[in-house]
């Protein structure tokens, strides 16, 4: 070999622990890079990227009504990300939030349709809230039970449960709960079954923010949160410490499903005022992105869910004003995800360039 | 026979952040020779060898092979130079056969399994390996997996072999078998480096010994010209007494009575077969046996982690009352107020939570404490700080993930926590495996200290030299049965070794 073949131009070294503040700086920088990369698709449509971003921000934040609509998109994302967080911390891959939302919505809708004229406003809402939580929780409990008992694969199981839930709603829509015959639609809720608004947005956002704080405390300060973290690290260690792993899995999944169910209740009672098979509308999946990008940190989830909501709301305006397809939001979300996941790589590793290293040696 | 220099390393320095793992090290590896690379944990042995196998590149220094300078940038390039390393943790695909694993990653155009198998067989017979090339890895014992790794390296044409602590997971018999193979390879002119910190093995197998201490090169000596004491001095820098203290406890009482204990694993194989013994207070009961003779199952059955088929395990309280442990979960046993501490073999996978700091790991014993749903972190934090100081754990802080600590410090955290619970019974499985001499002695004296406090200590060990110096009585397991219980003060290694293989003939006859 010739002496030209020295150490490679670029190599990787594992970093030692990094200052958490620096870590978050890198994450923010990666978002900036993603937004800059987002220029490319906009340029390809023949538009000025600065103008386009301006429209996105304008269309989502410039007027109170826009802000309200943006928050309305963010709330279910945030709520559902909070629901998924404990499962993911436990390394229980619950991708069935979509179905859990749907079942929560079904239970809430039952009371909205058949009890609205029999109960006063707040007791009705309370029952819808609780029934939504219980239904979502039970729906999530099924795969957890099978996992605990027979170690079935929770990823496939929770995924498949989604389609069953959606199928149930489709049946209700065309069958027992159908409003006008042949319409394939469930009637709109009466005002009695609609949740009140706070500052112009349904009060789900207050519930979500309360959940953020509760979830943070639950994960970091409680015995149950500790159990979840230990199981996520090593099931054997949990057993060694005397934890009943199966029971904890079921309990956590019930909790997760219950929060998703509450999200379902908020969607039907606060946004749609009716139930249809697409009620979850992909929130259960998008919220996985939210949970993951925020590293399961409850407070970071607020920012991430808002960001995704701004993109979604803003790009709708983009479509009407600049004739750029709204799907540009999906492209930018994809770029964001890519950048933020690859920034984790740079948090764990550092690059060493050949010439810089030689300099270090000389010095 | 004149020794030909295969590899020469000059002034090798490697830094990881602030830590200098290797500080300007010079090293010669000769063909037709077995060199032992000796040093405590963290002395830089593995790092140095990883630079030969292409995993790391040196920050400074030069490497020469047969006199010409070489640059090794990847394991693949290392193979091109004929250098192969067998790592501590095997890198095999479980569902592949031995041969498939061996040719994995080789790209010579076609995949001729039959031809490859023939070559594997040829290599095996040449050096005296004993493997079935068509056997799937998941069916293999640890020693067979190691053999596959070695053959894999030879198959790739390596004539400079580096083995990183190859005997850590082997029984004495398997170790002897490995050494025979290594000697065969030496006769064949290969250069062999074996990384270890077991002195008697160094004396047994090596021709020369190179000692590293804290990343620095200390010296190279001919094995024939040295003795364990001199090597220990080189390794640790100061003389360590090889004697383990073994005081007598004045008044031993029965603490744990195991009778007719039988456990069956998922495949229906009897892992323990009518095991009976008594553990006393103020006594270290050593448990010896070839690995996989039921040691793990025994400790896990006592702690309630392994289902018991038959038999009884009775705990004698200080007031003489007996409590049956069989059928109780670990949680129940703890709630009954039985002070049982357990240092499992798999420290990070069972005894500790790797991603948490010392405080989080102290919580593992006390997270249930206190009323209500909230965690109480104060006491565990104080305990973590105490262990940090008392046992000299090297860590930046009590919240630093224990996974990132070195093996010895991980074990200090684990043992420290278990002892702090003031147990009545303390069980340890391979408590000093992989630890350097100093930490090992810390552990021995901690265990003896517990014994003198009247704790019944059960010590599952693999090093017979240690067992006969540390334990008061030694229970020898063989194939899940008690082959004998001997007095630690009078027993000899030969006697125990014989018991360890006692039932073998009987087993095969059944």
The geometry of chain B reads as globular
- Outline of chain A: globular
**Biggest β-sheet description of chain A:** 2 strands, antiparallel
Roughly how many Å apart are the termini of chain B?
A: 50 Å
Number of helical regions of chain B: 18
Structural class of chain B: alpha/beta
Question: How many domains would you count in the coordinates of chain B?
Answer: 3
Strand content of chain A: under 5%
What is the correct CATH architecture of the largest domain in chain B? 3-Layer(aba) Sandwich
Secondary structure tally: strands of chain A: 4
Helix-strand layout with pairing:
The complex is a heterodimer of chains A (363) and B (510).
Chain A: E1 10-14, H1 20-37, H2 39-44, H3 49-61, H4 64-89, H5 97-114, H6 121-150, H7 154-174, E2 197-198, E3 201-202, H8 204-221, H9 223-233, H10 235-240, H11 245-272, H12 283-293, H13 298-322, H14 328-348, E4 349-353, H15 354-362
Antiparallel strand pairs in A: 1-4, 2-3
Helix pairs in contact in A: 1-14, 3-4, 3-13, 4-8, 4-9, 4-11, 4-12, 4-13, 5-6, 5-7, 5-11, 6-7, 6-11, 8-9, 8-13, 9-11, 12-13, 13-14
Chain B: E1 5-16, E2 19-30, E3 33-38, H1 45-52, E4 60-65, E5 68-70, H2 75-80, E6 83-86, H3 98-103, H4 113-127, H5 142-155, E7 160-164, H6 172-187, E8 191-196, H7 199-205, E9 208-213, E10 216-222, H8 228-236, E11 254-264, E12 270-280, E13 283-288, H9 295-302, E14 310-316, E15 322-324, H10 330-335, E16 340-343, H11 347-351, H12 358-366, H13 378-390, H14 407-420, E17 425-429, H15 437-452, E18 456-460, H16 464-470, E19 473-478, E20 481-487, H17 493-500, H18 504-509
Parallel strand pairs in B: 3-8, 3-9, 6-7, 7-8, 13-18, 13-19, 16-17, 17-18
Antiparallel strand pairs in B: 1-2, 1-4, 4-5, 9-10, 11-12, 11-14, 14-15, 19-20
């Amino acid at each position: 070999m010739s002496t030209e073949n020295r150490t490679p131009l670029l190599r990787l070294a594992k970093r030692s622990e990094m200052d958490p503040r620096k870590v978050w700086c890198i994450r923010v920088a990666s978002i900036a890079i993603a937004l800059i990369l987002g220029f490319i698709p906009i340029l390809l449509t023949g538009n000025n990227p600065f103008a386009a971003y301006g429209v996105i921000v304008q269309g989502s934040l410039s007027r109170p009504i826009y802000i309200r609509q943006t928050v309305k998109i963010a709330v279910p994302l945030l709520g559902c990300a909070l629901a998924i967080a404990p499962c993911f911390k436990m390394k229980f891959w619950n991708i069935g939030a979509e179905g859990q939302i749907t079942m929560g919505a079904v239970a809430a809708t039952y009371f909205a349709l058949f009890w609205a004229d029999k109960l006063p406003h707040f007791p009705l809402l309370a029952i819808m809230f609780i029934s939504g939580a219980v239904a979502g929780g039970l729906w999530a409990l099924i795969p957890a039970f099978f996992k605990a008992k027979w170690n079935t694969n929770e990823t496939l199981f929770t995924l498949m449960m989604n389609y069953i839930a959606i199928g149930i709603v489709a049946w209700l829509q065309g069958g027992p709960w159908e409003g006008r015959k042949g319409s394939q639609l469930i009637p709109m809720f009466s005002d009695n079954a609609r949740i009140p608004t706070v500052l112009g947005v349904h009060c789900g956002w207050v519930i979500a923010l309360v959940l953020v704080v509760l979830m943070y405390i639950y994960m970091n300060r409680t015995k149950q949160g500790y159990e979840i973290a230990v199981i996520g690290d090593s099931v054997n260690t949990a057993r060694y410490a005397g934890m009943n792993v199966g029971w904890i899995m079921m309990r956590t999944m019930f909790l997760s499903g219950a929060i998703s169910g509450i999200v379902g209740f908020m969607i039907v009672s606060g946004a749609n005022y009716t139930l249809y098979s697409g009620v979850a509308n992909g929130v259960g999946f998008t919220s996985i992105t939210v949970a993951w990008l925020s590293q399961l940190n409850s407070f970071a989830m607020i920012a991430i869910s808002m960001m995704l909501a701004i993109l979604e709301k803003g790009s709708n305006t983009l479509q009407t004003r600049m004739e750029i397809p709204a799907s540009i939001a999906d492209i930018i979300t994809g770029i964001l995800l890519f950048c933020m996941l690859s920034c984790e790589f740079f948090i764990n590793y550092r690059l060493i360039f050949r010439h810089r290293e030689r300099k270090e040696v000389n010095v | 026979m004149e020794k030909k220099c295969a590899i020469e390393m000059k002034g090798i320095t490697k830094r990881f952040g602030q830590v200098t793992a290797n500080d300007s090290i010079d090293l010669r590896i000769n063909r037709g020779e077995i060199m032992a690379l000796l040093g405590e944990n963290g002395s830089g042995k593995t790092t140095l060898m990883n630079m030969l196998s292409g995993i790391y590149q040196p920050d400074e220094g030069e490497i020469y092979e047969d006199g010409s300078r070489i640059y090794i940038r990847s394991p693949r390039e290392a193979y091109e130079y004929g250098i192969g390393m067998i790592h501590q943790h095997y890198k095999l695909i479980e569902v592949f056969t031995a041969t498939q694993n061996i040719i994995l990653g080789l790209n010579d155009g076609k995949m001729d399994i039959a031809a490859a198998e023939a070559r594997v067989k040829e290599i095996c017979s040449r050096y005296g390996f004993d493997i079935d090339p068509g056997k799937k890895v998941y069916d293999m014992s640890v020693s067979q997996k190691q053999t596959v790794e070695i053959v894999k390296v030879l198959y790739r044409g390596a004539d400079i072999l580096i083995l990183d602590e190859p005997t850590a997971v082997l029984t004495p018999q398997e170790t002897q078998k490995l050494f025979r193979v290594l000697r065969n390879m030496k006769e064949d002119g290969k250069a062999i480096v074996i990384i270890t910190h077991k002195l008697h093995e160094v004396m047994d197998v090596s021709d020369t010994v190179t000692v590293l201490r804290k990343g620095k090169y200390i010296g190279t000596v001919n094995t024939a010209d040295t003795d364990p004491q001199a090597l220990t001095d080189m390794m640790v820098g100061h003389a360590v007494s090889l004697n383990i203290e073994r005081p007598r406890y004045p008044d031993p009482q029965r603490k744990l009575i195991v009778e007719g204990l039988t456990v069956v694993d998922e495949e229906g194989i009897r892992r323990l077969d009518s095991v009976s013994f008594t553990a006393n207070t103020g006594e270290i009961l050593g448990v010896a046996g070839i690995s996989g003779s039921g040691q793990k199952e025994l400790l896990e059955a006592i702690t309630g982690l392994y289902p018991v088929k038959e038999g009884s395990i009775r705990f004698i309280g200080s007031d003489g009352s007996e409590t049956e442990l069989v059928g109780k979960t670990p949680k129940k046993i703890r709630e009954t107020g039985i002070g049982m501490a357990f240092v499992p073999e798999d420290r990070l996978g069972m005894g500790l939570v790797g991603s948490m700091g010392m405080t989080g790991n102290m919580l593992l014993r006390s997270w249930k404490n206190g009323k209500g749903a909230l965690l109480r972190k104060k006491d565990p934090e104080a305990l973590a700080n105490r262990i940090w100081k008392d046992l000299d754990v090297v860590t930046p802080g009590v919240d630093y993930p224990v996974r990132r600590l070195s093996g010895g410090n991980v074990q200090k955290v684990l043992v420290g926590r278990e002892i702090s619970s003031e147990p009545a019974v303390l069980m340890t499985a391979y408590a000093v495996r992989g630890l350097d001499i100093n930490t090992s002695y810390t552990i021995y004296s901690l265990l003896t200290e517990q014994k003198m406090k009247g704790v019944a200590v059960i010590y599952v060990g693999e090093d017979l030299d240690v067992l006969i110096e540390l334990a008061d009585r030694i229970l020898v397991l063989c194939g899940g049965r008690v082959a004998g219980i001997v007095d630690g003060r009078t027993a000899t290694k030969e006697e125990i070794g014989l018991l360890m293989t006692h039932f073998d003939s009987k087993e095969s006859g059944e």
